[in-house]
Amino acid sequence: MSGGIALTAHEVERSTALRSDPAWLTKAWDDPQTRVLIVEDGQVLARLGAGTAELAFVSPDRAPEGVRFLLGVDADGVAHFGVGAPLPASDGDPGTDGDGSRRGAGQETALRRAGLREVGTLLTDRDAGLLTHAVALANWHAVAGFCSRCGAPTEPETAGHSRRCTVDGSEHFPRCDPAVIMVVTDPQDRCLLARNAQWPKGRVSVLAGFVEPGESAEQAVAREVHEETGVAVSAVTYAGSQPWPMPHNLMLGFRAEAVSTDITVDAEEIEEAAWYSREDLRAALVSGELIMPPSLSISRWLIETWYGADLPRKAAT
Ligand SMILES: [Zn+2]
Fold first, then answer.
1. What's the CATH number where 264 sits?
2. Strands 79-84 and 35-39, sheet pairing
3. Which of 2, 95, 271, 297 could form a disulfide with 197 if both were Cys (CB 3.0 to 4.6 A apart)?
């Protein structure tokens, strides 16, 4: 496999203690070395090259007004902030007087708007971690401006990692909805793959669903698999997790063993589902009959960890 789960290799220290240190926060914002990432609707400016991407930061004096949040401090002591605000026009470099593209070492890059889905696997681990953190916080601030208790305005606190109601003083934290995603195998070690009713023909993945209130993640795995395919599972074990701030989910990955293999799809959410041996899957991918989820997703990682290798691509025709 190519590696671990995408979006999980944070390299910048989150510096939790500094969020409540106003003197340090002021000093960091006054430091021209500080880097600010502007986020609008899950998108930022990035420099894209051939198979590469790099976040475009600005210095604090060039950052627009908006909700500000501390992302952390890197190994060189450079502070990183995010700001939720409209993005500058992408035909100019926000940090220099560029024309939107620049040449370096023989490679041309273009500066433009991009989101996690597009650049999540092109960025370095460091930039991918910063972008995931920034998008998650910006998405939350965008909908958390009013108190869920009394409806009064809320104000950011702790360097943008919480908000407080201006009337009743209640404290509000970033929302994160847990969802389970699971690779289910049968006694022959075949893998259960399904096509969501909204997906194009041929696109399949593992099953997934939201954890309901009062439910454990393991219970949600068994319930969702049974609701969507009629298959009963046991031996539900945790595999790994992935932040998925689109808009505010945490994907909890599991493996589960089927104790029944007859499939009855729920027809509303799942169009079709079937058991695949490794050989079945390999043949279907090489022929182009099936399409796998993108490499950014934990679903792809779960399928590859079952398959035991990178998944084959469609053979050239
Ligand atoms: Zn309130």
1. 3.90.79.10
2. parallel
3. 271
